[in-house]
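Bench log. Compound arrived from synthesis this morning; before running ITC I wanted a structural hypothesis for how nicotinamide-adenine-dinucleotide sits in the protein. Inputs:
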Amino acid sequence: MQKITVIGTGYVGLIAGLGFVKWGNEVVCLDVVPEKIRKLQQGICPIYEPGAEVQLSDGLASGRLRFTCDAKEAVEHGDLIFLAVGTPEAPDGSADLKYVYRAADEIADYMQSYKLVVDKSTVPVGTARALKEHMARRLAQLGKDIPFDVASNPEFLREGRAVGDFNNPDRIVLGVFSEEAEKRLRALYKVFSRSNKPIVVTSPETAEMIKYASNAFLATKITFINEIANLCEQVGANALEVAAAMGKDGRIGPKFLHPGPGYGGSCFPKDTKALADTGVKYNAPLTVVESVIAANQRQKERAARKILDYYPEGATVSFLGLSFKPETDDIRESPAVAIARELLDSGRFTLRLYDPKAMENARAELGENPRLVWCSSMAETLEGAGAIVIATEWSEFRSIDFRRLPPDTVLFDLRNIYYKEDVVAAGMKYYGTGIC
Ligand code: NAD
């Protein structure tokens, strides 16, 4: 059993904290948002993530999990202190590391004994080394002569499947400066030794690069099939059949080959930009990644343009899905929200909006507007709409009864969840992504 502190209780920090408790450790989670901490102390999960609430109540019941806003208490508790704070995009596209450095300062200010600071946030190459030097300087200024170390342990979980991913990772990457750090982290992740999960031990720089390279590669794969889909629409090919056949090739694989309105979320957009920015800084430009960023922007605009062009006079649209992907309430960089905003900004559309979990976040983002009708169910959304837009592929959107809709209804299935022939058989018009 180890004493662990996690700084930041967002999508990564909370799930990591809950996982560490489940593995038998004693965990304190720190956040700067009192409302979040209050909810967590009461067993209420501030985010929607399947399985998290059960783990939260198990964790609290175990007596080995605490939530606090008190940085001193949190820093004093953990021998291992994980950083899981946000690293958002700065105005110039680089990663903004202010939260990471603020957390590091708090650790230096309150630590009284050895700490291993483990960075789980996604940070540019060189951050662990810079953080170590920064903390050493701050400790010296404070007149403290206390040993500490820094390591990198990037996180690869996916929102919507975070609990499963964290407890069953494809690999664990440990970027360390010292044998002592490796020993302590190996002891923590020993829980995976029976299931033979690969543990990659490397330098912090390599660990940091593994995270960015992985995300940029996945974003590239999505963007590649999106552009192939756009071409399919022009030449009369079917992108779904193309992707399925491509995916059968063992060298390519079927994952991340689903055409759609572009990638979004809190990671791919900012991480591709941060990686491209690092490439420019080090005079090793990542031209593929740069064009992926531009192509993804065009993909979102293209999806909106299809609807705008179809209705020069405007329309009332049933808009299904607002989160950036299913099974999360996260709307950060959501293509669905971007498309909804474009339709709204045209001044010609009334949107009847519905998402199973992201309504509150989307409402805060899009604001109140007489042309936005916030509905409480899919059925309510479908009432009186001449067009349906499926912007996020939540499972419940797969059960629309087309026979109950007026036959001239138009379906913009941006996520390709329906078969065109079924929709057309109901007398409706169908527009997918990459399907003509
Ligand atoms: P998030 O915005 O959901 O959570 C960050 C949390 O940190 C917030 O609750 C914030 O209040 C808190 N925080 C900020 N400064 C703090 C401080 N000084 N002390 C205590 N708490 C503080 O972010 P996230 O989505 O969990 O991402 C965290 C990091 O993990 C990012 O670098 C991200 O790129 C990376 N990551 C995210 C995912 C994902 O799917 N969300 C996956 C892998 C890696």
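What the model suggests: The two ends are 58 Å apart (CA to CA). The CA atoms of residues 85 and 102 lie 10 Å apart.
ITC booked for Thursday regardless.
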